[in-house]
Amino acid sequence: MRSIADAEGYAALPVPDGVGGRFSVLSAVGLFSASMCGIDIEALLAGARAMAGRVEAADWQANPAAVLAAVHKLAFDRGLLTCVMMPYADGLVGLADWFCQLWAESLGKEKDMAGRTVRAGQTPVRALGATDQHSQLQLYREGPVRQAVRPARGERVRRETAHTRRLPRRADAGDAGRQGAGPTAGGGETGDGICAVRERAGEPVDCLAPDRRRARRQFIFLYEAAVSIAGLLLGINAYDQPRWSWASRPPTDCSAEGTSRMLR
Fold first, then answer.
1. Peptide bond before residue 242 is cis, with ω within 30 degrees of 0
2. How far apart are CA 187 and CA 68, in angstroms?
3. 239 Cα distance to chain centroid
4. Torsion 9-15-21-22 (CA) sign
5. What is the pTM of this model?
6. pLDDT band at 156 (very low <50, low <70, confident <90, very high)
7. How many domains does the chain have?
8. Beta strand extents in the chain (DSSP E only)
9. What CATH number is attached to the domain comprising 135?
10. Largest Cα span, the chain
């Protein structure tokens, strides 16, 4: 398509070298699409710039992207090979879908940068509270602990009511990654409850409490930086896309006889 556009003289947006589709949200291509959908891209970039300043912190404990990457590296080392992103707001589902693509394509690598077979990565899962709370949470809560769960609640409530409560602040990762900070209401309170239950059980959980108006502005850059650092910690290249084909794998017999043979 690039060759056709150049040959015909069509107006086209550049995709910088080395920027894969999963990292193109804040590129000219992603921003043009967002603008056409009515998104305020100036505000989006302002949020990204704000987070960019935070993830440049030399002290890793003050760097939200480094903290996220370290947590996931420790989870991977402990055999927690599934990461569940579970927003409790419909407006955040798109971010969870994008997170799944970013995490899977960037960290799911067979070889490390030295060419050794490592088979790195976590399987990302998108769940939506409270819908999937009734279909998946049973497994996450009582099944084998093979996953880290990250509930993300919706827009913060600005006033306290009889039904709001606060959880102790565990860490501060800015508007896109503040963990367990209140007050909350509705679905957010349910998400906080899941965090509290898993914490008491000693199970891995990370509660994000974004302000929905700012979440997209900082969430994207935060996780792009986090996945980059996670790749370094795992010794893999988070930016490449290994080339392989089904031709290099043994053929699969999908007939009834082949399936029966496989089961035997």
1. no
2. 24
3. 15
4. negative
5. 0.74
6. very low
7. 1
8. 82-88, 109-111, 117-120, 123-126, 147-153
9. 3.40.50.10490
10. 65
